[in-house]
Specification:
This protein is α+β, with helices and mostly antiparallel strands. 24% of the residues lie in helices and 30% in strands. The model has no long low-confidence stretch (mean pLDDT 93). The structure holds adenosine-5'-diphosphate (ADP) and magnesium ion (MG).
Length: 362
Amino acid sequence: MAQLRLCGLEKRFANGATVVQGVDLQVDDGEFMVLVGPSGCGKSTTLRMVAGLEAPSGGQIFIGGREVTQQPPAERGVAMVFQSYALYPHMTVAENMGFGLRMAGQPRAVVEQAVHQAARTLQLHTLLQRKPRELSGGQRQRVAIGRAIVRQPGVFLFDEPLSNLDAALRTQMRLELSRLHERLRATIVYVTHDQVEAMTLGQRIAVFNQGRIEQVGTPLQLYDRPVNRFVAGFLGSPRMNFLPARALPGDMGWSLDLGAAGRLPWLPAAGLDAGAIAEIGVRPEHLALQPHAAPGGLAAEVELVEHLGDVVLVHCRLPGVDGSVTLKCAPEQGAALLRDEAVRIAPRQLLLFDAQGRCLHA
Ligand code: ADP
Ligand code: MG
């Protein structure tokens, strides 16, 4: 396995659009790195440049300490798995999996041995003589992964490999991919637009936005300490609530003023510039319903209650605030709530952002 390093990677297409801009990223030997971001932010283009399928307009790519920026794909020691499995329909599973090795001129016995070993790892050994059309979507995806495994690449590149599968199968394949990574100790770069996949699969995650990396870190680092509004809003479902606010000094200490919705008591942290605060960010699970008698909190009106079984999502409107605010609570709390009911809500935990969307804690 190998380390991967991207230095100032750029891609400008012939039509003039710069879709990858100055990407610096190090993926350690054996690490599972997820590139996540909204559609069109440059994830696939970045991966294709690593694979050698797209020439960078600038910057360098190193694999295992060796610069490969100008190397042809076959000499980079990478294997890519695509969303559209890209299997040969007229070949059996075994022939599909062994194709790369056969093309590289490996003897028949070596190819067979590699295919059988990969098939056992992926539980495909009973399907080796089938054609792709005789397989389910999940099995086809496993064959595509098997084809990558037999080549024993230094780095595996996955581009949205689970997007064509139904929800239940995606969950199962996520588990299988995690196990596979554990067994192979492989260096993996995995592209997805799905933040749940990113959070569950990645040892580290790089969040992409408009061709740039916003932040790199472990799933919980990004969840708990996002550097900006984009990362904070992208990870988490339902997404973080953002509310305009400013810090006000008073006789009783500081507070965060949310206009007509009310004020929240606030203790400024050392070194934090209270004047820079423009917005607060609160995750739905960090918003609590105040018992009716309790003072404080923010005035809100219940707009919609969604019962998901294990949790209840309460969508509220706050006076003077655009859009709705979502709160996640336990079923016993949400059961009694009625539409148009006036409630009070209070954050148990919040983040502060400046006018440029930078998080003031990070
Ligand atoms: P993602 O995988 O994050 O959804 P892509 O890397 O596929 O995004 O694409 C990033 C941007 O580059 C998109 O705006 C896309 O339209 C553009 N793009 C991709 N391939 C080409 C190309 N061959 N020529 C011009 N623009 C392209
Ligand atoms: Mg893509």
